[in-house]
Design a protein that fits this description.
Chain lengths: 300, 300
């Protein structure tokens, strides 16, 4: 058997299922970030993402946007836990023929995100490689009461999504703003039962929430906020890298949240959690109900 | 200008010099691991290393040894700070055609090092790539009193090295044991003024200590413990990936340390720190004194 037959999620499961964890771990493999014991009132978060030229970016996009993306995808993971980022270490693989101007632009993109979110850049590694490779590992912290996992969605919850969905390939995947302040507002002020960032695609990532929470859901085509860059509904909800937040709150808090939402970033109520484990239903614009499979982007 | 002209160390400096750090950082870029504020009596450590097929390992070495190495190089960095490892996140790039057996062996190597050093494997990322790429980011902790940096070497210090040096390419670079217990013993019981692990080469890494401590040193050819796999003296002290510890302690403690050393791992007194900034002298076997340049392996 080769990797392609195994699939990305089985690949990850294969590592995690034989792992024993110490009492220092609150949540290991299987959420947007790992959660570790830290201080009396807060947990430490740890996440990592690897970007490879040709898969996550093209060299022609320029160092600046690539550096921004490498940082932002990790910041988005910390946000999705209800936390704030702290410190990053960065591994860079690059060919010796790469122009120093490209590297300077890359570092400028990295530093800009770091400054915006008050992240300390504290170390790294540089390696010669044919393709440009950037791996960022980012720590963060979350107040214990603010921690939001994927597995707490509950029947009666309303499903929300921030911003708009789809068309990220037209450029937004390189220049999005991680939803840190929105997530902090939510975690501080609402009983957010579950949250995830949209990296694999809206349907796939909502699927992670449903699977881990052992519930099902209904979403409404008319309610899903499509980006003006989205090609069509199907590709919008299947494509990845929107880096918006999908989350659920108890139904009775939904209206209050919509009313109180203080940000320019859009907030959309797109559906509800139901007690039908793992099932996801889409109510199409013509009112037809479709059963859909939570699939999205997978590397293998 | 291209990367090759800039050189690896200038590449790292280029990022670090424009970075502003918060009060949460005890030591940023420029040591074996970053040091962050953590608990009342201890600091958090954070390090990362990226291994790429063809540069750090060959696929023919098999997944098991490659997995071990990917973990061990990071553990060695934590050890060189006087700390112990805590939790790791792992990014894996691999071609879809790679056999699942290879991946299982890789994970076995990773898990074995994790279990030996009680490291929690808490997350990661998987990406499709042509070459196999493994990035590990590892946290650790160090008692405040045990923290050892590169910059504390002082005239009159004696320079020590653990184990033997050279010939790592014959296989040891894939199967070495990080010197965690040795480093903990040293940090707990001795005034270790400076410490580093030998990744770039004995001369180069001692050079990092001299530069950061603004001192010089003398080492003795006859005192340097060559591995039986070493080709010759020059390549042994210039080649990298020995992953032994080089450290300095006050001269008056040197004999006591040699006497008390409780490990099977060899401990060698190889020289002394002198007050001549950045100069490194080698006393050859024929008593001739040579001035040498701290050079070693650089990726660019």
């Amino acid at each position: 058997m080769i990797l392609k037959d195994l699939g990305e999620f089985n690949l990850i499961n294969r590592l995690s299922k034989r792992v024993r964890l110490s009492a220092g771990v609150v949540k290991g493999i299987g959420d947007d970030a790992a959660v570790l014991r830290y201080k009396r009132d807060r947990h430490l978060l740890l996440t990592t993402d690897m970007l490879i030229e040709g898969r996550h970016f093209l060299r022609s996009s320029g160092g600046y946007l690539i550096g921004k993306k490498a940082m932002s995808v990790n910041v988005s993971d910390i946000a999705a836990m209800g936390g704030r980022p702290l410190a990053a270490v960065i591994s860079l693989g690059a060919p010796p023929s790469l122009g120093v101007g490209f590297i300077d632009a890359l570092y400028k993109g990295i530093r800009e995100v770091a400054e915006k979110f008050k992240i300390d850049l504290v170390g790294g590694d540089t390696v010669r490689s044919e393709k440009i490779i950037i791996n960022v590992a980012l720590t963060g912290e979350v107040k214990k009461g603010n921690l939001v996992l994927r597995n707490g969605a509950s029947p009666g919850d309303v499903i929300f999504v921030t911003g708009s969905i789809g068309g990220s390939l037209s450029g937004r995947h390189l220049s999005f703003t991680p939803r840190v302040k929105e997530a902090l507002f939510l975690a501080e002020n609402y009983r957010v039962h579950s949250m995830i960032d949209v990296s694999d695609g809206l349907i796939a990532d909502l699927g992670h929430i449903l699977r881990d929470s052992r519930v099902g859901g209904v979403i409404y085509e008319r309610a899903i906020p499509l980006s003006r860059h989205a090609k069509d509904f199907n590709s919008a909800v299947m494509d990845g890298e929107d880096f918006e937040l999908v989350f659920t709150v108890p139904g009775r808090d939904a209206d209050k949240l919509l009313k109180a939402w203080p940000f320019k970033t859009r907030l959309s109520r797109i559906g509800e959690i139901c007690p039908c484990p793992r099932r996801l239903y889409l109510v199409a614009k013509n009112k037809e109900i479709q059963k859909i499979k939570p699939k999205g982007y997978a590397h293998f």
